[in-house]
């Protein structure tokens, strides 16, 4: 057996795991951004509202928590029914 073979294998495994964790975190961040934009468009945006106003509201929504945005969408009955249990499960897993 090569002198550092075990350490190399452990390093390779750590690289694989950290890559998967990083990809998962990136996907969650993208999802949070999409949900914040969806929230603004379906709950807060009004007819005739300018793009700048919408972008300010999106910025505010992004400062809130993912869970609070999901809860607000559910409260306002704007969360598609088929997605509600999936997002509740995701929140439970994430927290």
Please describe the topology of this protein.
Layout: H1 5-44, H2 51-63, H3 66-75, H4 84-94
Helix pairs in contact: 1-2, 1-3, 3-4
Can you tag this structure with a few keywords?
mainly alpha, 4 helices
Helical run tally: 4
Strand content: under 5%
Could you tell me the mean pLDDT? 93
Alpha carbon gap, first and last residue: 43 Å
Listing every helix as H and every strand as E from the N terminus to the C terminus, the arrangement reads: HHHH
Total tally of structural domains: 1
Binned, the helix content reads over 70%
Approximate shape = elongated
| Strand segment count | 0
> Could you say which structural class the secondary elements and strand pairing correspond to?
mainly alpha
Question: Quick one: biggest sheet?
Answer: none
Residue stretches low in confidence (pLDDT < 50, at least 5 long) are none
Computed CA radius of gyration, to the nearest angstrom? 20 Å
